[in-house]
Amino acid sequence: MSTPLFAVYGASGCGRGVMPLARAQLMRAGVPVERLVFVDDAATAPNVNGQRALRYEEFLQTPASERHAVLAIANSKVREQLALRLAADGVHAWTVSAENVVRMDDVVLGEGAALSPFVTLTSNIRIGRHFHANLYSYVEHDCVIGDFVTFAPGVKCNGNVVIEDHAYVGAGAVIKQGVPGKPLVIGRGAVVGMGAVVTRSVPAGATVVGNPARPMKTKG
Q1: 72 vs 22, 58, 130, 212, 213, CA distance in Å?
Q2: What domains are defined for the chain?
Q3: Is it the case that residue 219 has pLDDT exceeding 80?
Q4: Which of 18, 31, 46, 96 has the fewest C-beta atoms under 10 angstroms from its C-beta?
Q5: Active-site residue set
Q6: Residue 92 in contact with residue 66, Cβ under 8 Å?
């Protein structure tokens, strides 16, 4: 009788950071480590960091009662494309969370999240699908975060903030708290640069840098 098969999709730096968390999570659940693999069509070795690496078609062909995968892909657009592919092939989105992640009251977390060590999600938060929260990031109270949003390490997202789909927030960025009924908004597909201090809303598709954060000047 076959058993579930679990995968970290992507064996690059992001995937190699998620894999130990996935392994520990399954061990706590009593799942044998042999039922956990990397999936990466570009993998150049049969094992990566001691874990078996399969091409996607091999993953689908491996006997299993069901399949689960977390997308360890930094690019949010690629992450969305792969999420659609997995769903079409009957692969379940899998949330991987470090054991020391803190989740407080009334946190709704969408499927397929990857939550690194020392992440904190406080109270009354809504987070969409396939959220990446890297080391030491936090989301404060009354925030709404869309689908395929990425936090690099050390992001500080304070209360009453709305972050729309596909936004990327760079390492060490600080997002100022909004006010009830008038949240600070990071628009769809916006990029907040490393170390930026965001004190006002960011338009969709914009890239902001600096302290205070301002639109990045283009050459030409």
Answers
A1: 11, 18, 9, 31, 28
A2: 5-94 (3.40.50.20), 97-212 (2.160.10.10)
A3: no
A4: 46
A5: 141
A6: yes
